# Entry
Amino acid sequence: MNLVLLGPPGSGKGTQAKRVAQRRDLQHLATGDMLRAAIESGSALGRSVRAIMDSGALVPDDTIIALIRGWIRRRASGSGFILDGFPRTVAQAQALDHLLTETGAELDVVIELEVDETALIDRLSGRFSCANCGASYHQRTHQPQVEGVCDICGSNDLVCRPDDRPEAVRTRLEVYRRQTAPLLPYYGTRHILQKVNGMAGIDAVTSQIETILNAVMPLPG
# Structure
Protein backbone atom coordinates (compact mmCIF):
# COMPACT_ATOMS: atom_id res chain seq x y z
CA MET A 1 0.00 0.00 0.00
CA ASN A 2 1.22 3.48 -0.91
CA LEU A 3 -0.42 6.54 0.56
CA VAL A 4 -0.08 10.27 1.15
CA LEU A 5 -1.23 12.27 4.19
CA LEU A 6 -2.24 15.87 3.49
CA GLY A 7 -3.00 18.68 5.92
CA PRO A 8 -1.67 22.06 7.03
CA PRO A 9 1.26 22.39 9.44
CA GLY A 10 0.33 21.12 12.88
CA SER A 11 -2.56 18.97 11.69
CA GLY A 12 -1.00 15.83 13.14
CA LYS A 13 0.29 14.26 9.93
CA GLY A 14 3.56 13.18 11.53
CA THR A 15 1.93 11.44 14.49
CA GLN A 16 -0.59 9.64 12.32
CA ALA A 17 1.99 8.67 9.69
CA LYS A 18 4.16 7.01 12.33
CA ARG A 19 1.20 5.07 13.68
CA VAL A 20 0.05 3.90 10.26
CA ALA A 21 3.59 3.00 9.18
CA GLN A 22 4.12 0.84 12.26
CA ARG A 23 0.73 -0.87 12.07
CA ARG A 24 1.00 -1.64 8.37
CA ASP A 25 4.77 -2.10 8.07
CA LEU A 26 5.19 0.82 5.67
CA GLN A 27 8.26 2.95 5.02
CA HIS A 28 7.62 6.45 6.36
CA LEU A 29 9.10 9.53 4.73
CA ALA A 30 8.62 12.82 6.58
CA THR A 31 10.00 15.59 4.41
CA GLY A 32 10.17 17.92 7.42
CA ASP A 33 12.63 15.54 9.11
CA MET A 34 14.56 15.21 5.87
CA LEU A 35 14.88 18.97 5.53
CA ARG A 36 15.88 19.44 9.17
CA ALA A 37 18.61 16.81 8.66
CA ALA A 38 19.88 18.90 5.75
CA ILE A 39 19.91 21.98 8.00
CA GLU A 40 21.82 20.15 10.73
CA SER A 41 24.43 19.03 8.19
CA GLY A 42 25.61 22.63 7.88
CA SER A 43 25.87 22.34 4.11
CA ALA A 44 25.14 25.18 1.69
CA LEU A 45 21.85 23.47 0.88
CA GLY A 46 21.08 23.23 4.59
CA ARG A 47 21.73 26.92 5.16
CA SER A 48 19.47 27.81 2.25
CA VAL A 49 16.72 25.54 3.55
CA ARG A 50 17.02 27.07 7.05
CA ALA A 51 16.42 30.60 5.75
CA ILE A 52 13.37 29.50 3.78
CA MET A 53 11.83 27.45 6.60
CA ASP A 54 12.44 30.17 9.20
CA SER A 55 10.41 32.57 7.06
CA GLY A 56 7.50 30.10 6.86
CA ALA A 57 7.78 29.73 3.08
CA LEU A 58 7.98 26.46 1.13
CA VAL A 59 11.28 24.94 0.00
CA PRO A 60 11.51 25.04 -3.85
CA ASP A 61 10.08 22.09 -5.74
CA ASP A 62 13.33 21.12 -7.44
CA THR A 63 15.10 20.69 -4.08
CA ILE A 64 12.32 18.58 -2.59
CA ILE A 65 11.83 16.48 -5.70
CA ALA A 66 15.53 15.64 -5.94
CA LEU A 67 15.51 14.43 -2.32
CA ILE A 68 12.34 12.39 -2.84
CA ARG A 69 13.67 10.84 -6.05
CA GLY A 70 16.69 9.52 -4.20
CA TRP A 71 14.54 8.13 -1.40
CA ILE A 72 12.11 6.36 -3.73
CA ARG A 73 14.96 4.73 -5.64
CA ARG A 74 16.67 3.58 -2.43
CA ARG A 75 13.60 2.12 -0.73
CA ALA A 76 13.26 -1.65 -0.52
CA SER A 77 11.79 -3.14 -3.67
CA GLY A 78 8.05 -3.71 -3.43
CA SER A 79 7.70 -2.19 0.03
CA GLY A 80 4.77 0.12 0.69
CA PHE A 81 5.23 3.67 1.88
CA ILE A 82 3.52 6.64 3.48
CA LEU A 83 4.49 10.20 2.51
CA ASP A 84 4.11 12.89 5.17
CA GLY A 85 4.58 16.44 3.92
CA PHE A 86 4.96 15.60 0.23
CA PRO A 87 3.60 16.50 -2.23
CA ARG A 88 2.81 20.09 -1.27
CA THR A 89 2.07 21.50 -4.72
CA VAL A 90 0.47 20.22 -7.91
CA ALA A 91 3.89 20.34 -9.59
CA GLN A 92 5.26 18.08 -6.86
CA ALA A 93 2.27 15.74 -7.24
CA GLN A 94 2.91 15.48 -10.97
CA ALA A 95 6.60 14.80 -10.31
CA LEU A 96 5.64 12.10 -7.80
CA ASP A 97 3.38 10.45 -10.35
CA HIS A 98 6.29 10.37 -12.79
CA LEU A 99 8.69 8.94 -10.19
CA LEU A 100 6.22 6.21 -9.22
CA THR A 101 5.59 5.31 -12.87
CA GLU A 102 9.34 4.87 -13.30
CA THR A 103 9.33 2.24 -10.52
CA GLY A 104 6.04 0.57 -11.49
CA ALA A 105 4.20 1.86 -8.40
CA GLU A 106 1.12 4.02 -7.82
CA LEU A 107 -0.76 5.75 -5.03
CA ASP A 108 -3.61 3.80 -3.45
CA VAL A 109 -5.11 6.57 -1.33
CA VAL A 110 -4.58 10.21 -0.33
CA ILE A 111 -5.98 11.28 3.06
CA GLU A 112 -6.54 14.89 4.07
CA LEU A 113 -6.67 15.86 7.75
CA GLU A 114 -9.20 18.70 7.95
CA VAL A 115 -8.60 21.20 10.76
CA ASP A 116 -9.77 24.54 12.19
CA GLU A 117 -7.11 27.17 11.47
CA THR A 118 -7.71 29.25 14.61
CA ALA A 119 -7.18 26.22 16.81
CA LEU A 120 -4.20 25.24 14.72
CA ILE A 121 -2.43 28.57 15.30
CA ASP A 122 -2.88 28.11 19.06
CA ARG A 123 -1.57 24.54 18.84
CA LEU A 124 1.52 25.44 16.83
CA SER A 125 2.54 28.73 18.37
CA GLY A 126 2.92 27.18 21.84
CA ARG A 127 5.27 24.41 20.77
CA PHE A 128 8.90 24.03 21.82
CA SER A 129 11.27 21.09 21.80
CA CYS A 130 14.52 19.66 23.11
CA ALA A 131 17.40 20.54 20.80
CA ASN A 132 19.28 17.46 22.04
CA CYS A 133 16.76 14.61 21.62
CA GLY A 134 13.83 16.22 19.79
CA ALA A 135 11.20 15.66 22.50
CA SER A 136 8.20 17.96 21.95
CA TYR A 137 6.43 20.18 24.49
CA HIS A 138 3.75 22.89 24.56
CA GLN A 139 3.47 26.06 26.63
CA ARG A 140 -0.11 25.34 27.71
CA THR A 141 -0.75 21.63 27.30
CA HIS A 142 2.54 19.77 27.80
CA GLN A 143 5.21 21.41 29.95
CA PRO A 144 8.24 19.36 31.08
CA GLN A 145 7.99 18.03 34.64
CA VAL A 146 10.87 20.31 35.70
CA GLU A 147 10.80 23.76 34.12
CA GLY A 148 13.52 24.14 31.51
CA VAL A 149 14.63 20.48 31.70
CA CYS A 150 13.78 17.82 29.12
CA ASP A 151 11.86 14.86 30.59
CA ILE A 152 13.58 12.43 28.22
CA CYS A 153 17.29 13.29 28.22
CA GLY A 154 17.66 15.93 30.96
CA SER A 155 18.98 18.59 28.59
CA ASN A 156 18.46 22.27 29.40
CA ASP A 157 18.44 23.20 25.71
CA LEU A 158 14.70 23.67 25.11
CA VAL A 159 13.95 25.87 22.11
CA CYS A 160 11.06 27.25 20.07
CA ARG A 161 11.66 26.80 16.35
CA PRO A 162 11.43 30.07 14.39
CA ASP A 163 8.80 28.56 12.10
CA ASP A 164 6.56 27.83 15.13
CA ARG A 165 6.29 31.50 16.16
CA PRO A 166 2.80 32.99 15.60
CA GLU A 167 3.75 35.20 12.65
CA ALA A 168 5.52 32.32 10.89
CA VAL A 169 2.59 29.98 11.61
CA ARG A 170 0.17 32.39 9.91
CA THR A 171 2.48 32.56 6.91
CA ARG A 172 2.71 28.77 6.73
CA LEU A 173 -1.07 28.43 6.76
CA GLU A 174 -1.47 31.08 4.07
CA VAL A 175 1.14 29.29 1.95
CA TYR A 176 -0.72 26.01 2.47
CA ARG A 177 -4.03 27.50 1.36
CA ARG A 178 -2.45 29.02 -1.72
CA GLN A 179 -0.15 26.23 -2.90
CA THR A 180 -1.28 22.96 -1.32
CA ALA A 181 -5.08 23.26 -1.36
CA PRO A 182 -5.15 22.75 -5.18
CA LEU A 183 -3.98 19.19 -4.53
CA LEU A 184 -7.47 18.34 -3.31
CA PRO A 185 -9.18 18.58 -6.71
CA TYR A 186 -6.07 17.07 -8.34
CA TYR A 187 -6.49 13.86 -6.35
CA GLY A 188 -10.26 14.17 -6.06
CA THR A 189 -10.76 13.72 -9.79
CA ARG A 190 -8.79 10.47 -9.54
CA HIS A 191 -11.17 9.24 -6.80
CA ILE A 192 -8.36 8.41 -4.36
CA LEU A 193 -8.90 11.36 -1.99
CA GLN A 194 -10.46 10.77 1.43
CA LYS A 195 -10.97 13.20 4.33
CA VAL A 196 -10.91 12.80 8.11
CA ASN A 197 -11.62 15.16 11.01
CA GLY A 198 -8.12 16.18 12.09
CA MET A 199 -9.43 18.06 15.14
CA ALA A 200 -10.59 14.85 16.82
CA GLY A 201 -8.42 13.14 19.44
CA ILE A 202 -5.32 11.32 18.25
CA ASP A 203 -6.84 7.86 18.68
CA ALA A 204 -10.07 8.93 16.96
CA VAL A 205 -8.14 10.27 13.96
CA THR A 206 -6.17 7.02 13.76
CA SER A 207 -9.43 5.07 13.80
CA GLN A 208 -10.84 7.18 10.95
CA ILE A 209 -7.71 6.59 8.90
CA GLU A 210 -7.75 2.84 9.56
CA THR A 211 -11.38 2.63 8.45
CA ILE A 212 -10.39 4.17 5.12
CA LEU A 213 -7.32 1.98 4.70
CA ASN A 214 -9.20 -1.21 5.56
CA ALA A 215 -11.66 -0.44 2.77
CA VAL A 216 -8.71 -0.28 0.35
CA MET A 217 -6.56 -3.09 1.76
CA PRO A 218 -7.73 -4.89 4.92
CA LEU A 219 -5.07 -6.09 7.36
CA PRO A 220 -4.71 -9.88 7.56
CA GLY A 221 -6.75 -11.55 10.26
The beta strands are 2-6, 27-30, 81-84, 109-114, 127-130, 136-138, 158-159, 193-197. The first helix runs from residue 13 to 24. The two ends are 17 Å apart (CA to CA). The mean pLDDT is 88.
